[in-house]
């Protein structure tokens, strides 16, 4: 915006029609004739030189200016009792200035034009505003929306017209998705919306986002810490969020280091495991919890099984405690939690 305040042109000081001259008294003495004195001669008015056409026109202009000053003074006295509308005063002043400019041009006196007001189309003789590629009277350069005088204040241009800052921001500035107020300075764009930078923060903890950025969930922004804590899948072993590498097993996810036997915490090197109550176990501890370890050798029973004395046995491990002969058909004698074949039992414990 280019604004150049002008200066109101001033005319020469107003003078009367008659000019006065200073009378000087001179005393002279004649030394050759004593007792004789000379009297001071009264000054005689010399006839004024004839006026030129230019001088006559200048006198007429000065008289016109005097009349204008008197008219302005009278209107100023009236305005103390009744304040006219701003527009009426502007119109009369513009008319006077326009008439004065025309008079000067009629007299052949060149004036320096400041252009014509883009609003009222009248010549500008006083202060001038240069804006939007045109010239304006200060009182005619107004906001397009509220019609308030912009004058020499900052303004915004849109589609070739001027707006005061308040109306421009209210009408055209982007609005913050959080507070709905116009964004006058810096604007942050995220999630297909605009925000004041200080109003774009985590929906859970309220902290403004740092260099790590944000995560979106259900059209709300979250910091990384809260997003992982609230929405990331949790490891079934340690209950912490699973961020990168993970294993999927038993209908859930695991950190690789957390997917181990529930009793001995050893990893499954072969890739196979046994499930019990939603937890993984190695074969040994799976059978231990199921009660399917052979009471004879301590190893899991995966095939045929013999149940005796509250324990389970591999068939080949269900033997006489004395002769170690396999007890066929499940016929045995028990003594002190040990199994015996009938001959050994009779030999050892008969009366």
Automatic annotation (TrEMBL):
- UniProt xrefs under Gene3D superfamilies: Cysteine Rich Protein
| Record has Membrane as a keyword | no
Q: Which Pfam families match?
A: LIM
Q: Which GO molecular function annotations are given, in alphabetical order? A: metal ion binding
The record's annotation in SUPFAM superfamilies points to: Glucocorticoid receptor-like (DNA-binding domain)
Region (Disordered): which ranges? 1-50
Matching InterPro entries, A to Z? Tgfb1i1/Leupaxin/TGFB1I1, Znf_LIM
The protein's name in its UniProt record: Leupaxin isoform X3
Q: Which organism is it from?
A: Heterocephalus glaber (Naked mole rat)
Gene that encodes it: Lpxn
